[in-house]
Amino acid sequence: MRVNSKYRIKPYPISAVVAGMELGRLVLTHDDKVMLSEGTILSESMIAGLKFWDISTVFIKECSPAMGIDLSIPETVLQKKFYADYDHTVNLLKNSFAKLRFFTEVPLATLCELVNNSIDPLINATGVINHMHMVRRQDDYTFHHSVNVAVICGVLGKWLGYAGQELQDLVLAGLLHDVGKTQIPLEILNKPGKLTPEEMEIMHLHTIRGYQLLRNTPNAPQGVIYGVLQHHERFDGSGYPLTVSGDKIHKFARIIAIADIYDAMTSDRVYHRKISPFAVVEVIVDEMFNKLDPAIGTVFLNNVRDYFVGNIVELSDGRQAEVIYLGQFMASRPVVVTEDQEYIDLERNKSLSIVNVIRA
Ligand SMILES: [Fe+2]
């Protein structure tokens, strides 16, 4: 229904509303009196009034790209805050890991503080999965990837029902999953292009090096130690370093494996351009019944797909389109509507695919 209209209506938390936005639905007071009508252009004083009356969410009218209207909606306050907090967290981690490379001691207390004070707010931010995709990454892949995996572990952990200390430990395991890379020579770690088989073998040692670092760290939680050691093990025994399989792989490591694949594939790397989250979902569906834990994979896919509706994407034929519907669970390819109002079910039309997310 929304695709026939000129606009789409999206809920905004009041903290993200700025002057100049147009109301897509009327706002009622708590005793059901009309406070502001649909179509009102909000002013600063109206926003202050909404806050005064404790209105937590309003519906805002956004231009629909399907009508060929300007896509350049400015970043919301929430997005700006997320990006600033994210950059700050990456810088804090960079400092900790730089020390680690020389002193080979994991600053556990500092990293626990980082999880509680900096990463936890990112996990709980509205729209976190979309923000993660649009975040501007600087050069240092390892630090960005570590923060991203920690955040995705936290989000996925919450979907799986984790809470409290166990969730904090899982996030810490995600943050530290590649800590062993601080012990890998920089010329291998940062080598552009493919690694030789010998270099690849050294690279694979980051799992064992991470395990050794954490074993020597007083009070390191068990789940963190095994999450780090086993995050490249695969459910069918095809991973490394010990080729263990099934539930011999710690559940933290099985969660990290999914977060790691999702983030690595949706990132720009020295050896590949980032792939759209839609294509990554297809990969996870493919691997879910042999290499990944199917129960965890199912929870991930069921929840992550909700974030994709409303994304503006680029199709393989160059057209822009809006994702309007995601079908059955296994149907990883959505229905989109293009700028010229063509509805395409990508599950049926396999000659087209999503190559990029323009706005999440
Ligand atoms: Fe790794």
Automatic annotation (TrEMBL):
InterPro entries: HD/PDEase_dom (IPR003607), HD_GYP_dom (IPR037522), HDIG_dom (IPR006675). Gene3D superfamilies: Hypothetical protein af1432. SMART domains: HDc. CDD domains: HDc (cd00077). Residues 120-316 form the HD-GYP domain. SUPFAM superfamilies: HD-domain/PDEase-like. NCBIfam families: HDIG (TIGR00277). This is HD domain protein. It comes from Sporomusa termitida.
